[in-house]
Each structure stands twice: as structure tokens, then as C-alpha cells.
Amino acid sequence: MMDADTDWVVISVTPSYRKILELELVLTAMGITAQIERDDTEWLLLTRREFVASAQKQLSLYQYENRFFSLKRSPSPVLEKGYVGCIGYLTAIWFVWFIDQGGLVPEFQKNGVMWAYAVREGEWWRCFTALLLHADFVHLLGNSVSGLIFGWMVARYVGSGAAWFLILLCGALGNFLNAYLQHDEFVSIGASTAVFAAVGLLSGLFCRRRFIASRGWKYNLIPIVGALGLFAFIGIGGENTDIVAHLTGLICGILGGLIVGRFDFRLLGKSGQIFAGIATGMVLFLAVLLA
């Protein structure tokens, strides 16, 4: 394709003025003469005939080197601000902390921990109640902050009710799986299993929704790789850290995110989110009663 002046040759055509300016800058930086013209619908980038080969080579190199950064991300609509569920989460774990520390329910810590043998014998509620219990104030504070961050992030994309129902379910499944991997006398408490379930849910959700559109599975695994990196960074430290519980929570969360990632949570509406939130509270209430 040539301009009326045959000394100039069109080497790139795009409807985006910003893009054509970017390509012109690439050529100018390499000392290649270029100019921009406009036809009826698109922008044209031209260079002199003697520079065509080198200009095309430089543009090809530039586009290859920047291929990752130009990939389009698939949209994942934000449904709400996500604050309501976070308030519920803090209320639950801090309320249990105060009644446990005050001795109002003396046997709750004993009957509520994730005791591997008891869970395998059918006391499934321990998988839920263990998420509410904490060893000390520092443990509680750490899970409060991390739970708020990741729970809020999940809630923004699936809604508060659905988010915390899924986080609770995946966290409890993580504890259940952990019980079958540990020896009979093993006990565990803390919301961190649910926190890593939230991390897994978020990564699985974005992976399933094709985090990077129109690319292969390697690019779509980026969120899951990030979740595993976060686990390696904060999930394996500390003398009393239950690493297996963190890992099982993360795995259950990833699988949960992959399963629900195709569902459009906007279909639940406000009433559906309220129902999911009530269901979350009822499951916890039943588990506490059984304990």
C-alpha cells in the first residue's frame, strides 16, 4: 500500500490515534523517519521507501516484546462494596473470643476445636466451630485483618452473602480434609483455613473467568500461581502454624472458585445474597449448638 507520493509507504494502519502515535515514537527513537496521515476512517503510519524493511522489523520487535502487556483482561463485574459480610465476619470471631475468654461457655473450646479423631468419627461441626476459635489475641488480630482483606475482595465479585457462604464452606472442607491427613490426637483452631480458602476462591474465580482473554491455559493460571506464592510467603511461617490446614483451605478454595466461576452472581439479586448470608449464619449457629 503506497501513498500518492511514491517515496512514502504505509507500514501500519489503525483506528486508534494513540496507537499510531506510539508506533511513530518507536520508529523515531530508532532514527527512522516516519509520519502520520489520516484517511476517511483510520490513521496511517508511513515511512520512506528505503526505511520500510528496518521499520517493519522494529515494529515487529516492539510488538513481540510487549505482547503480554497488551493482552486484554476479561471483565469481572464488581457487584458491591463488600463491607456487610466483613462486619459479620468480625462480629462472629470476636464474639466467640469474648465468650471463650470470659468463660461463659466453659467447654466450648474443648468441644469446638478441630480434633482429627473426632471429625473422622462423625463430629463434622468441629470443622466449622474451629474456624471461630483462636489461641490468643495476636492470632485473632492477624486473622481479623487478613480475613477482612481477602473476604472483602471475594465479596466485591460475588456479593457478601455468597462470598462468606463459600468461604465458610471451603474453610470447613479444608478442616475436614486436614482431619484425614493428621494423626488421631491432632487439634487445630483458627480462621486462617478460611482465610486461605478466600485466597483460593479469588484465584480460582479469576482463572475460570479467563483472567487473560483469548490466551492459553498458561496465562489463565497466573492467579493460581499468585495464590500459591502468597501461601509460600505467609502460610508456612511460625512454630505453631498449621501448614496443612492452610494448604487444604487454599486447595478447597481454588476448586470452589473454578466450580462457581462461570456462574453470574448478579442473578442472585439482593434477596439471594440475603438468603446466602442467613444460611451462613444458620450453619454456624447449628455447629455451635452441636458443640
Instruction: Return the CATH architecture of the largest domain.
Output: Up-down Bundle
> Helical content, roughly?
55-70%
Q: How many individual domains?
A: 2
CATH homology superfamily name of the largest domain = Rhomboid-like
Widest beta sheet: strand line-up = 1-3-2
The third-level CATH topology of the largest domain is Rhomboid-like fold
What is the first-to-last residue Cα distance? 78 Å
What fraction strand? 5-15%
- Major sheet, described briefly? 3 strands, antiparallel
- Summed up, the helix count is 13
**Order of secondary-structure elements:** EHEEHHHEHHHHEHHHHH
CATH class of the largest domain: Mainly Alpha
Q: What would you call the structural class?
A: mainly alpha
Number of strands: 5
Provide the low-confidence segments as ranges: none
Tell me the overall shape.
elongated
Q: State mean pLDDT (0 to 100 scale).
A: 86
C-alpha-based Rg, rounded:
27 Å
Supply the key terms.
291 residues, Alpha-Beta Plaits, Rhomboid-like fold, two-stranded antiparallel sheet, elongated
Descriptive report:
The structure is a single chain. This protein has 291 residues and is mostly helical. It has two domains: 8-65, Alpha-Beta Plaits (2-Layer Sandwich), CATH 3.30.70.2750; 83-290, Rhomboid-like (Rhomboid-like fold, Up-down Bundle). It contains 13 helices and five strands. It is elongated and about 90 Å long. It starts with 7 loop residues before the first strand and ends with a helix. The model has no long low-confidence stretch (mean pLDDT 86).
